[in-house]
Specification:
Number of strands: 17
Number of domains: 3
CATH topology of the largest domain: Rossmann fold
Helix content: 25-40%
Number of helices: 17
CATH architecture of the largest domain: 3-Layer(aba) Sandwich
Strand content: 15-25%
Distance between the termini: 66 Å
Shape: elongated
CATH class of the largest domain: Alpha Beta
Length: 450
């Protein structure tokens, strides 16, 4: 039995099948206007010079039947002409009239990617795969954070926040792992979602899928996996998105992005993160003032809807279905007022680690770096840090070991964790404050591991 028959049977019996979306077989079923599809097809043929119907269907990510109907219309209007055959189907190119029309379309928008989906279909799909319906259990959190050393209380707080699908503040001193935790959170979600290549709003095409942001799901269809064109390839099967922005964030990045030369729109960061996680790292240190961001998102965070504007001021509504993580080493009370903080349901302080945790982090770093772990050396380091009034930051093991590896590579020797290499690393890493630890002055030869 073909996969398409299996899907149809599952649908008839009410069985859920979320691995594929059936392709539209008519222009009406695409949810798009005939004019938009014809203009997109004509631009593609004009830019390529010549295409077959199979080529055009593949580039538009549409069913062959739909593309054949578009071709017949373009041919009847003398916008394209047949140049030959490619097996059983026509090859064709644009006529002089078609070239002129394609140039007009390109002046309006140079988008020539897969056909978009309608705004209505996009909204329905985002709501159907909402983050609020995702299942997250303790085992999922433990597996997601197995590479980090976290206490049970923090894991429980993170799990509760993940289930809520709302926003959280991760705050605390620098070097305590807030960014690592924030970027790891999406791994707690083990399901997949559908992301459209693009959506259409009032004849404007907005790109959504971004290969630099959206990672393909393990069960994503492979090329050539659908020879009958039974499934809608305008959608991409992805893991729940993870979008990270930092100090480069500006207020303009929260609106539609447009290239003034191509008149091509792309979705803002929060829209690309829909059904997933958006991490705002180093919150409070962006180029925009914190209150600008908070004022822009106070309604989306509360009502889970966002409003974007098209040229001319026309606004349209999209879901704001994402888990926003604000990570900062500043005091949240200094960044936001009570009204905004109330909308961020969870606030988790990520603090310094205990001596036992520091040992465990160092042990894991050494294992990953193929160094032999020495507990006595680490104990001595913690004593040194104590004399410097330096807390046990979880970033220290990785940073110090990295310095040891760099020094060994420079000297062309085998790296080793010992008192001499740790002291040398600390002198480079901890600046002048290392003098407070009364580190011994080491001769050049003693900085090298044997």
């Amino acid at each position: 039995m073909r996969l398409v028959d299996t899907v149809q049977r599952m649908q008839e019996t009410g069985t859920e099948y979320n691995t594929r979306i059936l392709a539209p077989h008519t222009i009406a079923e695409t949810g798009l206007s005939r004019h938009l599809l014809e203009s997109l097809a004509l631009k593609m043929v004009y830019l390529e010079g010549e295409l077959s119907l199979f080529n055009l269907a593949d580039r538009m990510h549409l069913n062959f039947r739909v593309v054949d109907k578009l071709f017949r219309t373009l041919r009847a209007e003398q916008l394209c002409e047949v140049t030959g055959m490619d097996g059983p189907v026509h090859r064709f190119t644009t006529t002089s009239q078609g070239k002129a029309r394609a140039t007009e379309f390109l002046a309006q928008s140079q988008y020539c990617g897969p056909a978009p989906v309608s705004l209505k279909d996009y909204v329905e799909r985002v709501e159907a795969q909402s983050l609020r319906t995702a299942q997250v259990r303790p085992a999922d959190l433990e597996k997601a954070f197995e590479r980090l050393v976290l206490d049970d209380e923090t894991l429980a707080q993170l799990g509760t926040a993940a289930v809520s699908g709302r926003s959280i503040f991760l705050y605390g001193p620098s070097g305590t792992g807030k960014t690592a935790i924030a970027e790891t959170l999406p791994r707690a979600y083990h399901d997949a979602v559908w992301i459209p290549h693009a959506i259409e709003v009032d004849t404007q095409i907005i790109s959504v899928y971004d290969s630099g942001v959206h990672a393909l799901a393990d069960d994503a269809p492979a090329d050539g996996d659908d020879p009958d064109g039974a499934f809608d390839r305008r959608w991409v099967r992805c893991k729940r998105p993870r979008v990270v922005v930092g100090g480069e964030l500006t207020i303009d990045m929260l609106e539609l992005q447009v290239d003034r030369f191509s008149a091509h729109y792309s979705a803002p960061a929060q829209m690309k993160a829909n059904n997933g996680v958006l991490v705002i790292d180093d919150f409070g240190r962006q180029r925009l003032r914190p209150e600008e961001l908070l004022n822009r998102w106070i309604i989306p965070l509360d009502r889970r809807i966002d409003y974007l504007s098209l040229p001319g001021g026309r606004k349209f509504q999209v879901p704001f279905d994402l888990f926003v993580v604000f990570a900062t080493n500043l005091d949240p009370n200094s960044l936001a007022d009570a009204a905004f903080l109330r909308r961020i349901q969870t606030k988790i302080k990520i603090d310094y680690v205990t001596r036992e945790q520091f040992h465990e982090i160092f042990r894991r770093v050494c294992r990953n770096s193929e160094l032999e772990y020495d507990a006595d050396v680490v104990e001595q380091l913690m004593e040194d840090l104590g004399r410097m009034n330096e807390p046990l930051r979880p970033c220290y093991p990785g940073d110090i070991v990295q310095h040891i590896l760099w020094a060994a590579r420079y000297q062309s020797v085998r790296p080793e964790l010992n008192r001499d290499t740790v002291v040398a690393a600390c002198r480079n890493y901890l600046l002048g404050s290392a003098e407070q630890a009364d580190f011994p002055r080491l001769e050049r030869h003693s900085l090298l591991a044997s």
